[in-house]
Design a protein that fits this description.
The chain is α+β, with helices and mostly antiparallel strands. The chain folds into 3 domains: 38 residues, no CATH class; 191 residues; 86 residues, no CATH class. Helix content is 33%, strand content 18%. It has 14 helices and 13 strands. Helix 4 packs across helix 11, helix 6 packs across helix 7 and helix 12 crosses helix 13. The structure holds flavin-adenine dinucleotide (FAD). Flavin-adenine dinucleotide binds next to helix 4, strand 4, strand 6 and strand 11.
């Protein structure tokens, strides 16, 4: 859609709420720019060599408290967004949709903080990035590896110089459905009779490990996790609401497409007990000379430990997420019965959870 000079392509959601391009064949002049810009089948062209080392990174405690892991992304922004550079990342829009957006000030970049476990809508961001780079501005782009790869192919096809672009890709488990996300937000709004204004997927007031959510309502209430608010994260963990292509992701590998890769340093407690804590530790891979330069610049301000990269146990650095055998049943249930039904059946909400609770209570009694 971004690439088409004739505006002959638009994006349409399918039944799962994922966007796909649709070509208006009347407007199409067969110039081929869309195919040249598309990354499908070209993963190898943007992948770098596997790095031999990885880094564990802790930013200050107050930055870590508001970041998903160790807050390395904030450190990258702090260094990069000086002197008129721009940055692109994922934010919530006013309706709680997840979208990619450009920020031109350090303050605007704060909205990028925090993982939003929903596929973000890229809108016209590739075009905006290309325009920014062409104007001579430096730009930091962050996103899932497929989004970084898409940008790289777009830029290549449009013959734009990459020298002023720094790319940060995330270790990615897969992207959940924006349609289910919207239904989930509506379910919360209905239950609490108030709009959702803020949302944190990784509320650290109960520690970094696990996915604890917090919801901020327009009426001023702040809701910590309960079995409705937590249901989206529980379903995310079951691998039933990811985009189908995530199960065949060619970027789920140690050969990364970004200059720098960031993720959660899961498993750090078994690798380096002294460095491990429950406030969040980022895992960083440095994949290119540009990434190396950037990481060297932020390193003195952070608490950093270096390890051989083969210590990493992150499954999505080696292979895509396994396809769930419940996938089709889940979508049939969702299509026919809606969010609250799947929240109960797959997300631990309501009577099914209560039933499990009473069953376990009876079991405990019998075992005494
Ligand atoms: C869909 C998804 C799946 C993930 N899966 C894993 C995983 O399996 N293993 C793992 O180690 N880490 C995973 N992460 C990354 C992880 O959650 C943290 O984002 C990462 O550790 C960086 O933490 P931080 O504290 O430095 O950054 P934060 O300050 O929390 O920065 C968040 C960064 O993520 C970007 N971002 C947030 N939401 C999205 C989105 N929907 N799409 C694209 N970019 C987004 C922002 O633009 C920003 O760059 C995933 C992130 C997403 C969005």
């Amino acid at each position: 859609m971004n690439a088409c000079p004739k505006k002959a392509i638009h994006m349409e959601p399918d039944r799962q709420g994922f966007l796909y391009p649709v070509i208006n064949t009347v407007k199409c002049v067969d110039c081929g720019l869309c195919k040249q810009s598309c990354q499908i089948g070209k993963a190898r062209a943007v992948q770098n060599e596997e790095p031999s080392n990885c880094f564990g990174v802790k930013n200050s405690d107050c930055i870590r408290a508001v970041s998903s892991s160790g807050g390395v992304f904030t450190a990258l922004l702090d260094k990069f967004i000086i002197g008129g550079s721009a940055a692109v990342g994922a934010v919530f829009d006013s309706e709680m949709n997840v979208v990619h957006k450009t920020a031109n000030t350090r303050k605007e970049c704060d909205a990028f903080r925090g993982s939003k476990y929903v596929q973000s809508n890229m809108g016209t961001i590739y075009k905006e990035v290309a325009d920014t780079l062409s104007s001579g501005q430096q730009l930091l782009f962050s996103g899932t590896p497929c989004q970084v790869a898409g940008l790289k192919e777009y830029i290549k096809a449009h013959r734009i110089d990459e020298a002023r672009l720094l790319t940060v890709d995330l270790v990615c488990h897969g992207a959940p459905s924006p349609k289910i996300w919207a239904d989930y937000i509506s379910a919360i709004e209905k239950k609490y009779h108030s709009d959702v204004e803020t949302y944190t997927f990784r509320d650290k007031s109960v520690g970094w490990r696990g996915y604890h959510v917090r919801v901020g309502l327009a009426n001023g209430d702040s809701i910590a996790q309960n079995n409705l608010t937590q249901s989206f994260a529980v379903i995310f963990g079951k691998e039933v609401m990811l985009r189908p292509s995530c199960f065949y992701c060619p970027y789920a590998s140690m050969e990364r497409c970004g200059d720098v890769t960031i993720g959660d340093f899961w498993g750090i407690e078994g690798i380096d007990k002294d460095f491990s804590d429950n406030k969040g530790i980022s895992m960083v891979l440095v994949n290119t000379p540009k990434g190396e330069k950037m990481f060297s610049a932020i390193r003195p301000e952070l608490n950093v430990k270096e390890y051989p990269s083969d210590v990493l146990t992150q499954p999505n650095l080696r292979k895509p997420t396994d396809f769930s055998l419940d996938y089709d049943a889940f979508w049939n249930d969702y299509d026919s019965k809606g969010y609250l039904y799947i929240a109960k059946k797959y997300g631990g909400y309501g009577i099914f959870r209560k039933f499990r609770y009473y069953k376990n209570a009876v079991k405990r009694k019998l075992m005494k």
